[in-house]
Amino acid sequence: MGQKTIIEAIEEQEWLKTAGDAIQPAVVNAFEAGGEAGKQVKDMLHGAWLGHPLHPAITDVPIGSWTTAAVLDTLELMGEKKYVPGADAVVAVGLVGAVGAAITGITDWTGTTQERRKIGLMHGMLNAGAAALYVTSLLLRRRKKTRGTAIGLSMLGYGVVSFGAYLGGHLVYGKQVGVDHTATAVTYPEDFVSVLPENELAENTMRCVKAGEVPVLLARKNGEIYALAHTCSHLGGPLSEGHLHEDGHVHCPWHGSVFDLRDGSVVHGPATEPQPRFEVRVKNGQIEVRTPKKEKSKKAD
Ligand code: FES
Q: 255: Cβ below 6 Å to ligand 1?
């Protein structure tokens, strides 16, 4: 079975949809039950404060630790007994890191749907299975007569977590989870571009317009006109189809990320990257936008 076939086979599993339908709302409800504090915790776990998803950074801890354990275990099997304490220690460190990876991963998973959600669930189950193997291994490592079994379980866990990591990589590179969907190849306008007659943007409304190739969200709030990238940085949702709140925040219709119209900053995740904002002016009755001069370099790469 080729790589693509494995992914397709996972995507075809209806039981993953059923399980996701049951688990995902329960996790979302748990955060919502916490009110404003629950929102803050969720944003923190997504990595909104970091401007980058937190989950992939934390996964380096278990994967790095367990890779080290595999090397030290192999040396032990070759007769190098001095590495025994180190191997046991890194198995334990990996388990601590796995707890953080699991919590942040489940949080990010709440912002996925359809195939992404299925693959994410399989990714999580594999990693949970790997963690269970490492817990058992750690317990068995203490006794000399079960040490060989313990090392075997660790090796098996390493194989499982490696496949889980492959699925995690596919979620990022194949399904674009956790990447900034505003960082596209299109050229952001450096000079003012006319996008809409001013009288076609009513108070408290949002419109999607084009500045060259770039879809732009226009909104008018309290008489002020604001412009942000229209494509949600989380997974590409159309912001103009979301909600414009009284406080000047925009709510993405797909997974509920909230951005501040004034500067595009993330108010609530799952988005972690801000929306690029545009300078706005009205000239000869036309709304015109351009990339702010100091932010040009961000999209020029
Ligand atoms: S696309 Fe997911 S919150 Fe906007």
A: yes
